[in-house]
Amino acid sequence: MLALLLTGCVPAAQRPSGWVYPLPRHQPDDGLAVVTRPGGEGLHIWIETDTSRPGTCRPRWIPDAARLRGGNGPRPTSFGLAPRQEFFQAQERGRVRVALRRQAEGLCRQRAPRSVFVWDPPPRSTADYRPPDLPLLEEPDLLSDPRAIRRAEKRLLGLPLTPEDLEEPPQPHPGGT
Asked: Are 104 and 120 spatial neighbours (Cβ–Cβ below 8 Å)?
């Protein structure tokens, strides 16, 4: 009862509105605004999809949400990062989880319309969060062939190619180094 009386004394602008609504980043359904602080501040949760398994689309959770500003007004913006703990606290609210499911399902329909949507609930603590396993990059994926770059530069500059520019790089042996 005392808490109710005390919150009645706080001006509305200084109380969190508790609003939860879609706030796209790049396309519809890829973001959700969650007002958690007074003055319209909160989280801009980014929603991603995982289509690594053929025929299924599921959410890929990113607990590193952006800080939301102006969430109670007509032009909300996001910037920087909010603490992960705030993301996990937002998951305690059923309205947030329902809205995240709705957004993730819509995003899957856009990105993988022929796939089945599989709901994986968002992590509710640091211990629950499992970063996605991404493929490792190998050296050939990271570095361009210097001879190919030199040839391209010379062609762009209109310079003649020399015989060493045309040499192919040595190929690694299939059995090892």
From this structure: no
| Rounded-to-integer distance, Cα 101 and Cα 84, Å | 19
User: 91: buried, middle or exposed (CB in 10 Å: 19+, 13-18, 0-12)?
Assistant: buried
- pTM for the predicted model, two decimal places: 0.68
String of DSSP letters for 10-56: S-GGGS----EEE--SSSTTSEEEEE-SGGG-EEEEEEEEE--STTE
Structure tokens at 9: 């004394």
Strand-pairing partners, residue 88, are none
- The residue whose two tokens read 């009862």 is 1
Q: Which band of pLDDT confidence, cut at 50, 70 and 90, is reported for residue 101?
A: very high
Q: What percent of the chain has pLDDT over 90?
A: 61
Taking residues 58-74, what's their average pLDDT? 93
